[in-house]
Amino acid sequence: MKPADPVRDQHQTTRHLLMIRPSHFGPNPQTAASNQFQQPAMHSAVDLAARVIREFDGVVAALERAGTGVLVVADVPGGATPDAVFPNNWMSTHNDGTVVLYPMAAVNRRAERRPDILEWLAADGGFRIHRVIDLSGLEQSGSYLEGTGSLVLDRLNGTAFAVRSARTHDPALAEFSRLAGYRIVAFDASLGAGMAVYHTNVMMSLGRNFAILCSEAIGDPVGREAICAELEASNRSLVEISVDQARQFAANCLEVDSAGGPVLVLSETALQSLQPGQRRRLERHAALLPVGVPTIEHVGGGGVRCMLLEIHLPRPAQLDSQSMISPGLLRHPDP
Questions:
Q1: 111 in any annotated domain
Q2: What does the alpha-carbon distance between residue 183 and residue 173 come to, in Å, rounded to a whole number?
Q3: Which of 134, 100, 122, 124 is CA-nearest to residue 314?
Q4: Quick check: is 304 in a domain?
Q5: Contacts of 276 (CB under 8 A, 6+ apart)
Q6: Which end of the chain has less Cβ packing within 10 Å, N or C?
Q7: Among residues 234, 283, 276, which one has the least CA distance to residue 255?
């Protein structure tokens, strides 16, 4: 792959989100070894499916009430995509019209990459795709980088924070940096039990004016100080959380734009873990929008941030108020 112009991200947040409505959600044995959040399902397959759909539809409804544009995409048929509800791991989009496709560690997750979604975005959706950086070929050499799970992007300053793990490798980070132009800040972190943090977004989140960080997960004092200094240099208010709070998805949240201003989408689990002072500091920058996704958190091992793929692609202003639902590919949640 030849180096290209760096990604030009002028905005940290967006009002457009893409979500995959799951049809085959369930425990994924191919991801369990590296994901300490993933727990066995305690429900029958029928009950599990019903619970997950209720949770998913509840997130969509909450976002729509807040005035955020949600693109709901049907899962692929066939039953081979238990983690499809987490689309942020296979694609990211950027203000200059760049789309990045990522190399996935689990073989059964690679089927989540959807060329049909890119085609719809560029055609019926009215979004402008200028180029596609496809890193998926790195899978052949066993080098992985799982989207904005592995990467927490400071889009305004062109910095990508990444915890090294079985799903986030230095060669893939170097290739992302070369082709996308982001400066990489890579480090090691653990939430205990000798396991690396499997995705950076379970211990860190960046909004326009705030940062959430579980700094105690960074064992190296020098590295910890350097990460905190990076965040402070970005002029963000730093909200520190504990390892216990990180285990309750307190960092797995996302600031999005809405009709009423910025909102921070987080799970009810995460909200309940926050101390009053932490809530107040976050509320200075965004209204808190809690949603209930306990089944998705415990069985899937990912939180609400993982369910939200940000669409930063340019789109003509006159299209912003129009529907982004297309028959066949996309659908509204069932009533």
A1: yes
A2: 10
A3: 122
A4: yes
A5: none
A6: C
A7: 283
Euclidean distance between CA atoms 222 and 51, whole angstroms: 44
Element at 289 (helix H, strand E): strand 287-291
Cα 300 to Cα 27, 74, 94, 190: the distances in Å are 6, 18, 27, 19
Give the angle subtended at the CA of 31 by the CAs of 28 and 35, to the nearest 5°: 115
Number of domain units in the chain: 1
Q: State if pTM tops 0.85.
A: yes
* Residue 4, domain member (yes or no): no
Domain that holds residue 28: 16-319
The answer to whether position 159 is within a domain reads: yes
- The residue assigned the tokens 């400066």 is 183
Kindly report, residue by residue over 282-330, the tens digit of the pLDDT: 999 999 999 999 999 998 999 999 999 999 999 876 455 444 543 445 5
Asked whether the beta carbons of 102 and 135 are under 8 A apart, the reply is yes
- CATH value at residue 99: 3.75.10.10
- The dihedral built from the CA positions of residue 17, 210, 273 and 202, taken in this order, carries a sign that is positive
**Closest Cα partner for 77 from 146, 21, 12, 135?**
21
Least confident stretch, 24-33, 133-142, 172-181, 269-278 = 24-33
Q: Is 152:200 a contact under the CB 8 Å cutoff?
A: yes
**Number of Cβ within a 10 Å radius of residue 113:** 18
Cα 174 to Cα 184: distance, rounded to the nearest angstrom: 8
